[in-house]
Amino acid sequence: MDVLDVMVPSEERETLDDDIRPAWTKGMTCPVVACGGRKYDNYSQVRLHWNQVHLPYITYFCCERCNFRSPRRNQVQRHYRQRHTLSLEEAKLVSVAGKELHNAKFVDPGDKTMPIVKVSPGMALRREEAAARRLMESGRFDTSVLISRTITVARDQEVVPLGRGQAIIQDKSHWLRGSAMSRENYEPVETDFSQFDSE
């Protein structure tokens, strides 16, 4: 028996894998209000900012001969080669130990989280479907989610709503491969979704 089976209810266990972080878009500002309004043109800038400002402790790699420190091990090795004139092999052999130090620039993010790099349309749809499935199981399902747009059932199928609880399940892979003749002869399977109608 897994620890999660004992400690976490089944409804909550399903949501553990959901990623609730905001999706990063080009020109997005930091979600923490105290940071100001600087816009970031690429995700690596956002990640660097988050690691430098919103983590309470940072792992620094320090030079054993002087006060130089950096959050990147390779920068300390380069420092050894340039400042202390060690060869590349000698610099790699020097033990560069990481030390976790308090971040002097720390700004508490509160309940905000670092944005994720990208949400593809398929991933966003799967997230919406998972949320709708959880709502349906809990009895709080909104039928407008099902009827208002195309819902993906599986990677090779999609449900096209027709209104009043009726929908068609189409096999997408059939449309993507095969001749034009086979596409013309394809008959989608109709499915009754009347159980989702709100009275």
TrEMBL record:
Official protein name in the record: C2H2-type domain-containing protein
Xref: InterPro entries: Znf_C2H2_type
Sequence ranges assigned to domain C2H2-type in this UniProt record: 28-54, 61-84
Organism: Mizuhopecten yessoensis
